[in-house]
Amino acid sequence: MEYFLLLPPVAFVIYLLLSAGLSGLVKPLAAKGRDSEGKYKAYACGQANEINKVQPDYRQFFPFVFFFTIMHVVVLVIATMDASAMWLAILYIGVALLALRILFRR
Description:
The chain is mainly alpha-helical and 106 residues long. The chain has helices at residues 8-26, 62-79, 86-103, and strands at residues 43-44, 47-48.
């Protein structure tokens, strides 16, 4: 029974119920706010936030994200690989290099 409480889903539900209960207990102590004209408007650095007309383009950003992901997955897999599977590590590095070649081709 003691190990049952340590299972991640069970612990999550326990903490969720504890948090909800604590929130319900302290809610009456919270300050009562009043609705005002700008209550729900965006606000940053002391100035009203204006709507931007330009939408950012992330097309140049994605190759770097994929490079970062591929390299970190390769490093994690090879670092945790058994030394007797050296041929598999070399194959994995080859596939990763091929993926990077495809990613950065022009």
